[in-house]
Each structure stands twice: as C-alpha cells, then as structure tokens.
Amino acid sequence: MRSRVQAWSTRLARYTLRVLRTAASPLWRRSRPAVFSWLETSLTDVRAGLQTEGIDARSRLPDPPYAAPWLTGFIAVRLAMLHATCLERSVIMQRWLMAIGRPHDLLIGVKSPRETTIAHAWLDHEDSRGHHVLMRLPPSGARRS
Fold first, then answer.
1. Does residue 135 fall inside a structural domain?
2. Please, what's the b/e burial string for 7-16 (b: 16 or more CB within 10 A of its CB; e: otherwise)?
3. b/e burial code for range 113-144 (CB count within 10 A of at least 16 → b)
4. How far apart are CA 140 and CA 105, in angstroms?
5. Burial classification of residue 17, based on how many CB atoms lie within 10 Å of its CB (0-12 exposed, 13-18 middle, 19 or more buried)
6. Is 80 inside any structural domain?
7. What pLDDT sits at residue 71?
8. Does residue 121 surpass a pLDDT of 80?
9. Residue 122: inside a domain, yes or no?
10. Which of these, 72, 89, 138, 142, is most buried using a 10 Å CB contact count?
C-alpha cells in the first residue's frame, strides 16, 4: 500500500512540476536549479551534522538562494522524495520558512510521557499526531519578544 501511495505521489509531483515549468518557464528556470541544489546540499549537511553535532547542526544551514512562498510545496515534496526523516525535514523546512518570513518553532516530542523511544519532530504549525512536546527550538537567528 505504501509503495503505491509513494509511486502515486511521485507521479503527481512530477506532473505538477511539468505543468509549472510550462506555465512559469522563465521564473522556473531562474529559481528551480538553485533552490533544489540548496535543498539537496542542505539535506546532506543536516544528515552529517546531526550525527556529529546533534541538533546544533541546524544553525549552520545557509539561507536559500531564492525563497518564494509558492515553492514551499515543492520543497516539501522534494524532501519526501529524498526520504528525509522528520527531524531532517523539520530543520530544513524551519530554515526555508524563516527565509520567506514565516518563522516557526521546531518541536521534538514523544508519543507518551512514559514511552521515550518513539520520538517525532515537527514544526509548530503542523499537527503533533498525539506527541507530547519535550523540546521547543525557535528558528536560528529569530528574535523573540
């Protein structure tokens, strides 16, 4: 079942990208290569950094070269296609959303307070899926009042 859903979502993402390329070709040519190159480099850096530095690796992520709200869905789809974990996805999406002017806290939690082995990471505007928050991390460089 999962593989059919993944195949369907991949086909839908590719079809959507094809339509977008046709509709917004000049803008697409200017932004897509740099943004997706940033995304793939960032994912590689986050994967390596989380293993060596832990959660502090998120502060080393550079800002994207071009950030526009309309690319947010494509960033999320590409992260899913690259099989990013919930923590990797949340770190990169936090940086992306900060770059487009929508800062969100990164939350890390567990399924229940007694069961600490099933952890999950998400951003504060997303559904917690029944997880209890253990740690709340504001965006790097964000000013809190």
1. no
2. eeeeeebeee
3. eeeeeeebbbbeeeeeeebeeeeebebbeeee
4. 10
5. middle
6. yes
7. 87
8. yes
9. no
10. 89
Residues belonging to the chain: 145
Query: What's the domain count of the chain?
Result: 1
Residues 54-87 pLDDT 10s:
888 888 888 898 888 888 988 998 899 899 999 9
HEC sequence for 30-49: HHHHHHHHHHHHHHHHHHHH
**What is the separation of C-alpha 60 from the centre of its chain, rounded to a whole number of angstroms?**
15
Q: How far apart are CA 131 and CA 111, in angstroms?
A: 4
Domain annotation covers residue 126: no
The residue with tokens 């070269």 is 65
pTM for the complete prediction? 0.72
Q: 98: domain range?
A: 2-103
Q: In 10 A of CB 4, how many CB atoms?
A: 8
Evaluate if residue 27 carries a pLDDT over 80. no
Pinpoint the alpha helices (H) of the chain. Answer: 2-23, 25-52, 72-81, 86-99
- CA geometry: angle 132, 136, 141, nearest 5 deg: 165
Radius of gyration of the chain (CA): 16
